[in-house]
């Protein structure tokens, strides 16, 4: 189902994400998940094409994140929330859960996307698996899509 | 709506006997609306000869600039109305956080590149950022949106009554994307071009040439046709010819594009190629000539040369 055409900066961001091996999310300015790439799909246990667009509450319920104790992290503390709210990059380390029930410790960096014309459009969140096996796969470019 | 091509070349003017039929001037298109008002899109070297053809008493001239690459502004300094005190010229272009439109254009119309400065032009000229929302010019509704190219670049959708023209002269919508399978909301320029009666679109490269030019901001034939198909353009005018492409090369490119369009299920005559001084009638005036892809027209698309 298609909605209103996305602004160019989001289209270009998605095109960039499809071309890189670093797992990454693209979110709208209200925090809705618009897209994630194949590398992210491998970590999250499901390709984006199967799961589609999600509201913030939906993707948080599906993937987490959680702190080291396994407790949910407040949305306000997430890098993407800081990026969207404050218009600046933010970084954090936490745990996410794949749809297959695997937990991955990751480092995540959120960066705001601010248009020349429309102001804030959304954010990109790059993330890196910190567990050894996943990190090695990523470093060697052998991260297979699910 | 009438559309006349005054320059169809991209990148740099390409004069020479082997370029005579398609022309060597860079991008410039004149649009005459049903109200009789004239809009000019882009100010490549083609605008110089257009300037001589315009009535000297034209009350106002609106020029829409897609972007400020030299092949789209080079003719401004040689546009005769700029040198008439009675001319009122409004130039619309992409905004930038870096500098005003006037300041960016003045980098070209100033020393050492030019013997005159913008402030010395005798005409009444103003520079305006293209609004982010639809606006009206000469009785037509204009929409400008950013499209995939290098640097801030606009495409235009001009709606005059029931007739819609879309102009995206510099566009690489397939960069990093699979155009044939993307949701429309993720296709650069989709809303501008959707169901256009005439789509004037970048087609600088053949498929064979494209790999050496990926990311340069221009389209290959396959991507131009896929884009036209996805947006449902009724007619497509291949535009922004590479300066290396001679008349015979463009003949072959056009023939291949028509053939490819037929393979996609379209009617070959819906794929046209821009020729300098050519006039196209768009919309109701051409009746069945404004043919939807896939339908068989009763007449050929209306086009004349002068």
* CATH fold node name of chain A: Beta-Lactamase
Into which percent range does the helicity of residues of chain A fall? 25-40%
Q: CATH superfamily name of chain A?
A: PAS domain
Q: Catalogue the unreliable spans of chain B.
A: 287-300
Proportion in helices of chain B: 10-25%
- How many domains comprise the coordinates of chain B? 1
Total number of β-strand segments of chain A?
5
CATH class of chain A: Alpha Beta
Count of DSSP-assigned helices of chain A: 6
Q: Rough shape of chain A? A: globular
How do the helices and strands line up, and which of them pair or pack?
The complex is a heterodimer of chains A (146) and B (306).
Chain A: H1 8-18, E1 24-28, E2 33-36, H2 38-44, H3 48-51, H4 56-63, H5 79-86, E3 90-97, E4 103-115, E5 119-129, H6 132-139
Chain B: E1 2-7, E2 28-32, E3 38-41, H1 46-53, E4 61-64, H2 70-73, E5 88-93, H3 101-106, E6 124-129, E7 135-137, E8 140-146, E9 154-160, E10 163-168, H4 190-193, E11 198-202, H5 221-231, E12 236-239, H6 247-263, E13 271-273, E14 278-281, E15 303-305
Parallel strand pairs in B: 3-4, 4-5, 5-6, 10-11, 11-12, 12-13
Antiparallel strand pairs in B: 1-2, 1-14, 2-3, 7-8, 8-9, 9-10, 14-15
Please describe what this structure looks like:
The complex is a heterodimer of chains A (146) and B (306). Chain A has 146 residues and is of the alpha+beta class. Chain A has 6 helices and 5 strands. Residues 141-146 of chain A have low confidence and may be disordered. Chain B has a single domain, classed as Ribonuclease Z/Hydroxyacylglutathione hydrolase-like (Metallo-beta-lactamase, Chain A, 4-Layer Sandwich), CATH 3.60.15.10. Chain B has 6 helices and 15 strands. An 8-stranded mixed sheet of chain B has the order 6-5-4-3-2-1-14-15. Chain B has a 7-stranded mixed sheet with strand order 7-8-9-10-11-12-13, covered by helices on one side. The chains are: A alpha+beta (146), B alpha/beta (306). At the A-B interface, helix 1 of A face loops of B.
């Amino acid at each position: 189902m298609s909605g209103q055409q996305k602004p160019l900066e989001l289209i270009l961001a998605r095109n960039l994400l499809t071309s890189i091996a670093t797992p990454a999310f693209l979110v709208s300015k209200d925090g809705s998940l618009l897209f994630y790439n194949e590398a992210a799909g491998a970590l999250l246990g499901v390709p984006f094409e199967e799961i589609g667009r999600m509201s913030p509450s939906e993707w948080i319920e599906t993937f987490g994140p959680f702190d080291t104790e396994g407790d949910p992290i407040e949305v306000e503390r997430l890098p993407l929330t800081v990026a969207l709210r404050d218009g600046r990059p933010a970084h954090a380390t936490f745990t996410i859960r794949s749809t297959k029930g695997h937990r991955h410790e990751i480092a995540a960096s959120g960066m705001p996307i601010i248009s020349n014309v429309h102001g804030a459009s959304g954010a990109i969140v790059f993330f890196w698996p910190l567990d050894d096996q996943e990190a090695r796969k990523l470093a060697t470019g052998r991260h297979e899509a699910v | 709506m009438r559309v006349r091509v005054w320059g169809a070349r991209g990148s740099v003017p390409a004069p020479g006997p082997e370029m005579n039929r398609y022309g060597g001037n860079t991008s410039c298109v004149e649009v005459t609306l049903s109200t009789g008002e004239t809009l000019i899109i882009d100010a490549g070297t083609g605008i110089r000869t257009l300037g001589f053809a315009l009535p000297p008493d034209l009350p106002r001239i609106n020029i829409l600039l897609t972007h400020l690459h030299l092949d789209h502004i080079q003719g401004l300094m040689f546009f005769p109305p700029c040198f008439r005190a009675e001319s009122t010229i409004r130039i619309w272009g992409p905004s930038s956080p870096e500098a005003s439109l006037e300041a960016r254009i003045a980098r070209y119309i100033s020393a050492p590149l030019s013997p005159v400065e913008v402030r010395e032009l005798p005409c009444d000229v103003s520079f305006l950022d293209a609004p982010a929302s639809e606006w009206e010019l000469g009785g037509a509704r204009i929409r400008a949106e950013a499209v995939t190219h290098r640097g801030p670049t606009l495409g235009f959708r001009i709606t005059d009554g029931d007739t819609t023209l879309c102009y995206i002269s510099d566009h690489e919508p397939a960069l990093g994307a699979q155009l044939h399978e993307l949701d429309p909301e993720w296709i650069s320029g989709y809303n501008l071009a959707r169901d256009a009666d005439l789509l004037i679109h970048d087609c600088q490269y053949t498929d064979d040439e494209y790999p050496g030019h990926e990311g340069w901001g221009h389209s290959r034939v396959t991507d131009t046709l896929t884009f036209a198909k996805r947006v449902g353009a009724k007619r497509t005018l291949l535009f922004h010819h590479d300066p290396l492409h001679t008349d015979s090369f463009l003949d072959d490119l056009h023939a291949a594009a028509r053939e490819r369009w037929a393979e996609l299920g379209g009617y070959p005559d819906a794929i046209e190629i821009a020729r300098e001084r050519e006039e196209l009638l768009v919309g109701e005036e051409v009746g069945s000539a404004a043919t939807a892809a896939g339908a068989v027209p009763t007449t050929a698309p209306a086009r004349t040369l002068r």
